[in-house]
Amino acid sequence: MDLTSIGQTDRETSGPGQSNLLRTISWKHAFWVASGVPALVLFSIGGIAALVGPPSWLCWTLSVSFGFVQAFVYAEIAGLFPGKSGGASVYGAAAWVRYGKIIAPLSLWSNWLAWTPVLTVGSSVAAGYILTMLFPPDSAVATYRLTLLRLDFVKAGLEMRVTASSLIATSLLLATFCVQHRGILGAARVQMVIGIVALTPLLLIGIVPFFTGDVVAANFVPFVPLSGAWDRTGWALFFGGVYLAAWSSYAFETAVCYTREFRRPSEDTYKAIFWSGILCLAAYSLVPLAFQGYLGVERMSAPDIVDGSGVGAVMAAMVGGNGVLAKIILLLLILALLLAISTSMAGSSRTLYQGSLDGWLPRFLGRVNHNGAPTNAMWTDLGFNVVLLLLSDSMFVLAVSNICYLVFIFLNLNAGWIHRIDNAHIERPFRCSNWLMASGVGLAFVNAFLLGAGANVWGEGTLTSGIVVLLLILPIFWFRHYVLDKGKFPAEMLKDLRLASGALEKPRAGVLPYLALASGVAIVFAANLYFHS
């Protein structure tokens, strides 16, 4: 089958209640939608620096390097499914479905739970910047707080509350929803304009301090974690930093969410992931290095840096901003955060959309509007994150979300070799080198190790909370598949496998996928036991 011709001729239309996305974009549009990913560094750069100390910049460099290698595996499996939307988790789920019905929706569910909190954390940080610009830190508006529910049984000090920040953040999410409602082409055009403007200060922050002499070598020594030594505790802190950095630095894989909307999926998929990766390699290597070299360990440990509210002001100072110029730079960083929020809503809503079409998630999520936007999925994203905005600890939300993300990463990197065994007959517009595939499989187990070693660094109950959240897919999938669909998958789920019989063929990988799963679980719990017993 000629995949290129599919991309060139498929100009489907859709209306309310129908389930067709439109082939209207090229890889450049997907690049600009994914260009919000570099702004994710603003979410946790302070928290990781305060946790790890001088080696924190290395956490980011390692993490984004891992993400770049992994992206080529995603590019290969995305090319197998030019008719599906929703990103790598959907393509990975198609590999695992032969080996266990629940494993496949777990891939998709864990990816959505990883992506959707970008809306919460990003809008919270942007709201903090807005409050900083408009009000003194001790003003009645900035300090307003109405406690709704205490959640100490989940984590000490955690609560649900209403603040000025949460109200502003909700308004930002509604504005993003309105942009996304226009469809992916309209959203990509808006993001291209915002991206050019908003990414400029991030790139300047990563470059200018090196030329002005503001990156001080003394701020990188002694090159040991804050515990004071490279002992078990020190390594746990370092792995905790790499663990959390993955949530941001891996995220440019969202560029493959739009395969179903590419005009030429055979060409656009690879180009979108490659150039998005190059952008993120630059941003996640330079910005943390410059940030740490400018601040030093003591300033990085300040509360306003840890929670992210003071990061924007510091970054404005890093490029010589003061007075009106500082406010302009802060405004541009807010635009960068809005770009990240829009990127997340576009990608995560399409994950829900495709999950509905494939029979994993509730049916109502599979509807689109006349612009081809999956509005029901977008409303679900919005409502879920409005609730998350009420939680008092966004770093805890991020750390739990990252458990889901690394589970998704593990499943999808292994999906690469499973597809090569089970779906060798399907044409691959892009086939990554064998050494890249092998490296990706190796990184799957590296990520399992990071999950076990690093999650509980961010709170004693983090790993347990993540497992509970992951298990929520069980009743959701059970009701959709066994109650509504009577134990059968929709034809939509199987159509891209090009099966003559219309049914799943016998798996060819034998026990290998199960051994991979068992090994991954063993690594997670062994690492957690060693570093946190």
Plain-language structure description:
By secondary structure, the chain is mostly helical. The protein contains 23 helices and 2 strands. The protein has helices at residues 3-9, 27-34, 41-52, 56-79, 88-96, 103-115, 117-134, 140-143, 164-180, 184-212, 232-249, 265-295, 297-300, 303-306, 311-318, 324-357, 375-388, 394-422, 434-454, 462-471, 473-484, 491-494, 512-532, and strands at 145-150, 159-163. Strand 1 (145-150) and strand 2 (159-163) form a beta hairpin. The longest helix has 34 residues, at 324-357. Residues 1-19 have low confidence and may be disordered.
**What composes the largest sheet?**
2 strands, antiparallel
Shape: globular
Beta-strand portion reads: under 5%
Reading side by side through the largest sheet, how are the strands ordered?
1-2
Q: Could you give the distance between the termini?
A: 54 Å
Helix/strand structural class:
mainly alpha
Instruction: Tell me the helix content.
Output: 55-70%
Radius of gyration from the CA trace? 22 Å
What is the string of SSEs from the N terminus onward? HHHHHHHHEEHHHHHHHHHHHHHHH
- Oligomeric state of shown chains: single chain
The beta-strand count equals 2
Number of helical stretches of at least 4 residues: 23
Low-confidence stretches: 1-19
Mean pLDDT: 82
